[in-house]
Amino acid sequence: MSMDDEDKEWRRRLSGLAYRVTRLGDTERAFTGRHYLEARNGNYHCICCDHLLFTSDMKYHSGCGWPAFHTEHEDAGITRIEDLSHGMHRIEVKCGKCNAHLGHVFEDGPQEHGGERYCINSVCLDFVSEAAE
Questions:
Q1: DSSP per residue, 26-55
Q2: 27, 32, 57, 89: least CB-packed within 10 angstroms?
Q3: How many CA atoms lie within 13 Å of 35's alpha carbon, on the beta-carbon side?
Q4: Could you give the domains of the chain?
Q5: Any catalytic annotation for residue 124?
Q6: Residues 66, 119: contact at Cβ < 8 Å?
Q7: Which of 46, 48, 95, 119 is catalytic?
Q8: Residues with pLDDT less than 50, the chain
Q9: Pairwise CA distance, residues 130 & 122, whole Å
Q10: In this predicted structure, what is the pLDDT of residue 2?
Q11: What is the pLDDT of residue 84?
């Protein structure tokens, strides 16, 4: 599949916001995502490829405006890329399977879990509750 065909397929499968965030590196507005306050038990998968990224046991309320996780799932294989955009120094995180932009990881998370905070756009995630599995 050519890059143009792949891009057309992503545009067809994803909402406009999900496409802009996952494929172009955009960010959803803080406090607007459907998973920000999600408190049910379950798993968070990549919206693009259904790869398991996080579980509800890894999620915590950081107050940052986006879903926050202190750890990634052991099979997630999330990649990290230095991001110097917008006059900041951040670490971008991408899905280890399909390279979708997910958000950023910061060093202000819970110390008892290693001190990281994965700040993830809700629109990048598909939540599957334990009740549905």
A1: --PPTT--TTTT--SSEEEEETTT--EEEE
A2: 89
A3: 28
A4: 3-132 (2.170.150.20)
A5: no
A6: yes
A7: 119
A8: none
A9: 18
A10: 73
A11: 86
